[in-house]
Amino acid sequence: xxxxSITQVKELLLDKSLKICLIDNNSVEFFLRIKEQVDIKQLxxxxxxxxxxxxxxxxxxxxxxxxxxxxxxxxxxxxxxxYIDELDYIKLVDYKDAILFxxxxxxxxxxxxxxxxxxxxxxxxxxxxxxxxxQIWLDTLYKEGFKGEIITNGRERKKNAGEISICVLSxxxxxxxxxxxxxxxxxxxxxxxxxxxxxxINKMYSNKDYxxxxxxxxxxxxxxxxxxxxxxxxxxxxxxxxxxxRLRNPKWVTYTRKxxxxxxxxxxxxxxxxxxxxxLRDSTLYIAF
Length: 289
Description:
alpha/beta, 14 helices
């Protein structure tokens, strides 16, 4: 079911035990690769609410294939679906401008030129209480802060804008709606989104004003996580390296593995497809990202 207004979204967020999924553009591209084997319902049946930030919506709609796939998702009766315009983030935080500014600042914090831009061109050495209106500084951030490149359809694509937006939205949900949410899961294959989120939460707790705030943990499903999960649920059939190569390139993977004495091995390293084929059959494995 399509949820068309931010008021409806806020009403849904007041329900108890919500399972929420946020989707990145790169994950939609992956869904298209597995579409012939995996029904869209099988990907999202565990969630009550699916959200896509507006800046990611723009990236999705650069491709008719991605746009049409999301339109299929929107028609599912069992799941509430909504695009969230970044301008509406202020309503989700009940107009608490200062904390929303810090969500953006901390989400951008590991990109030092972008962090410097925000401090120089938005904060301007003034107290947070003297910030311009949210709509004004958000527009400045998007148009001038993010580097752009012109793509084939003539649009200027803003590097990292989608990843920052999904990170901020996840923080809003985690800190403002924790009592009503069972879990928040981000579908993304972009390591930046994972790193931005971890950095932002650490920065929140280095700020004495926010240290006492509780929050709901945020989890991730990368493409590798989904391949492993769907393969072991027997929803995705992979019998050769060639088939696997259609779904993934060699990449750095964060994982844990349970050892014979119940201790936990932690790993973060480059995994080639041949090794990943073996990992698919390892029941002791957990892929974090």
